[in-house]
TrEMBL record:
It is found in: Membrane. Pathway: Carotenoid biosynthesis. Its main location: membrane. The lineage of its organism: unclassified sequences, metagenomes, ecological metagenomes. This is Unannotated protein. GO terms for cellular component: membrane. Keywords: Carotenoid biosynthesis, Isomerase, Membrane, Transmembrane, Transmembrane helix. It is a multi-pass membrane protein.
Length: 102
């Protein structure tokens, strides 16, 4: 399976988790997109640093070929999925904690 396919699957899983399973609906909230806009430059900087120094190297036959800050665009997909999933779980466990207290 290509890196691209796995990256797209990660977005589908995290979106499904957010909207249908945890039902935090972060993708519909302005605060999520504002938070992601703050995180994104740091992800781009980190991706650039790791790929430009060849600490992380990608097989060109397994990616789309579009690069941003010297990293494949798929890295942005994974970063997005990670941020969305972590925040959705944060909300989920926060709700559980609040329900356990009462």
């Amino acid at each position: 399976m290509s890196y691209t396919a796995i990256a797209v699957i990660s977005i589908l899983i995290s979106g499904t988790l957010d909207i249908y399973i945890i039902k935090s609906k972060l993708l519909t909230r302005k605060i999520f997109w504002t938070s992601y806009a703050i995180i994104l430059p740091f992800q781009l900087l980190t991706n650039w640093w790791l790929t430009s120094r060849e600490i992380v190297i990608y097989n060109d036959s397994k990616i789309i070929g579009i690069r941003i800050a010297s990293a494949p665009i798929e890295d942005l997909f994974f970063g997005f999925s990670l941020v969305l999933s972590v925040l959705a779980f944060w909300i989920y466990f926060g709700r559980r904690e609040a329900n356990d207290v009462h």
